[in-house]
Design a protein that fits this description.
This protein is α+β, with helices and mostly antiparallel strands and 246 residues long. The chain contains 10 helices and 4 strands. The protein is globular and about 45 Å long. It starts with 12 loop residues before the first strand and ends with a helix.
């Protein structure tokens, strides 16, 4: 776990992560996952964003589409703060890989994300007077090289496996095929988009990852290799942690 937040530099990649206070679930229903993903897209803008307005506009577009009515919409051009490269949402925590695009971009984006989602969550679940949802401020690690990035991508994308096999990272996995199939049905991650299955394609900028790993199929193979490596008794968990957090 990093003890000091790095200085954010434009163009560089960072692993961003946080969990619920007291490890409580920050996603309790499917709609919560959808809301967080929606925030990842809509709040990535230098301008002040009112989520209620964005949600209402989206509802209007969906209604017009459903009823077949025609209407001309003015395209809203965003001014992104970051590139969201990778994301994975788990019941009580999240992982992101972000590239900063403008000075202070990551800090502003994460502030907007935390405030907006916390407000939504507290209102929905009647948490009056309980403003804190996350375990302090977000954690961040600078990604120094391709080796670290590839290990981190494998680590993040394989995270949901613990929902079907608890403690698999320590004890190994029983059925790697079942694990991969589960990941290919898990919507709350950008893994599907990275292997060529459209899920939330507008949220992430992933072309360079696909190129780095050699294509959609290679990303899936990389995850399979990672899972198999983690089943080997000679695997070094401390070395894995060092690579991810170095």
């Amino acid at each position: 776990m990093p003890s000091k937040r790095p200085k954010f530099v434009n163009g560089k990649l960072y692993h961003i992560f946080n969990r619920g206070v007291e490890k409580r679930n920050i996603f309790q229903q499917v709609s919560d996952y959808f809301r967080f993903v929606f925030c990842l897209y809509e709040l990535n803008d230098k301008r002040l964003i009112k989520m209620r307005d964005r949600i209402e506009k989206r509802k209007q577009r969906e209604y017009k589409k459903y009823t077949g009515e025609t209407r001309v919409y003015t395209r809203v051009y965003r001014k992104p703060l970051v590139e969201v490269v990778v994301f994975c949402l788990m019941p009580n925590h999240y992982h992101l890989v972000l590239r900063q695009l403008v000075d202070g971009g990551i800090s502003l984006f994460m502030k907007k994300l935390a405030n907006s989602y916390t407000g939504y969550f507290n209102e929905k679940y009647h948490r009056k007077g309980l403003g804190v949802l996350f375990q302090g401020t977000f954690k961040a690690v600078h990604i120094n090289n391709d080796r670290q990035l590839i290990a981190l991508i494998n680590y993040i994308f394989s995270n949901p496996i613990e929902l079907i096999e608890k403690n698999w990272k320590e004890s190994g996995i029983k059925d790697s095929k079942k694990a991969i199939n589960f990941l290919k049905t898990y919507r709350w991650s950008s893994f599907l988009d990275c292997i060529g299955t459209p899920n939330f394609p507008s949220v992430t900028e992933r072309d360079f990852i696909v190129e780095l790993l050699g294509g959609f199929n290679k990303i899936e193979e990389s995850i399979k290799d990672w899972i198999l490596y983690k089943t080997k008794p000679e695997r070094n968990l401390e070395e894995i942690k060092k690579i991810i957090l170095e």
